[in-house]
């Protein structure tokens, strides 16, 4: 359980993150009941009902982060809204989505690629050419990994059989 203590317009807020809910000053809200912004089908921002400031939860790969008025609470770094995803980010995300045809491992790599591409494409602390290069590199490496796994299965005779 993560805990944040913030002050908005002189009023203190105790925010506690739980598995599928958030508790604000003792009042529990289910995450699904709060307003969200999604890209494709991934939840990227969850607005919290706190007056006087823009307070949101931003899902990460491992945990949620709290953003108040465009600044990450823990790191103090500026947050780029997900609405600023460039066109190339959507194109590369769609190419990552194609990996679903490669089964469970492909779907896992595809969803991870979509998430990473959308996050990297909005990271303003990374130069735009580097953002594009990182996203394309992940896409290429994930396809190479799928091809290598398929080649190993073919060379090894497919799935093991037990007699």
Explain what this protein looks like in three dimensions:
With 163 residues, the chain is α+β, with helices and mostly antiparallel strands. 36% of the residues lie in helices and 27% in strands. It folds into two domains: 13-82, no CATH class; 85-155. The protein has helices at 87-97, 103-121, 128-155; strands at 2-8, 11-17, 21-24, 27-30, 36-39, 42-47, 55-59, 64-68, 71-72. α1 runs antiparallel to α2, α1 packs parallel to α3 and α2 (103-121) runs antiparallel to α3 (128-155). The N and C termini lie far apart (49 Å). The mean pLDDT is 86.
TL;DR of this structure?
The chain is of the alpha+beta class and 163 residues long.
Summarize the SSE layout with pairings.
Layout: E1 2-8, E2 11-17, E3 21-24, E4 27-30, E5 36-39, E6 42-47, E7 55-59, E8 64-68, E9 71-72, H1 87-97, H2 103-121, H3 128-155
Antiparallel strand pairs: 1-2, 2-3, 3-4, 5-6, 6-7, 7-8, 8-9
Helix pairs in contact: 1-2, 1-3, 2-3
């Amino acid at each position: 359980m993560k805990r944040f203590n913030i002050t908005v317009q002189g009023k203190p807020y105790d925010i506690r993150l739980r598995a599928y809910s958030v508790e604000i000053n003792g009042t529990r809200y289910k995450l699904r009941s709060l307003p969200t912004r999604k890209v494709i089908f991934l939840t990227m921002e969850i607005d919290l009902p706190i007056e006087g400031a823009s307070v949101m939860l931003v899902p990460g790969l491992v945990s949620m982060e709290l953003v108040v008025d465009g600044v990450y609470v823990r790191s103090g770094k500026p947050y780029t809204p997900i609405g600023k995803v460039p066109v190339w980010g959507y194109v590369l995300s769609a190419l990552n989505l194609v990996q679903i045809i490669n089964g469970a491992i492909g779907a896992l790599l595809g969803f991870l690629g979509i998430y990473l591409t959308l996050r990297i494409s909005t990271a303003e602390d990374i130069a735009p050419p580097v953002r594009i290069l990182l996203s394309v590199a992940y896409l290429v490496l994930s396809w190479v990994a799928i091809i290598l796994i398929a080649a190993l299965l073919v060379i090894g005779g497919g799935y093991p059989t037990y007699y």
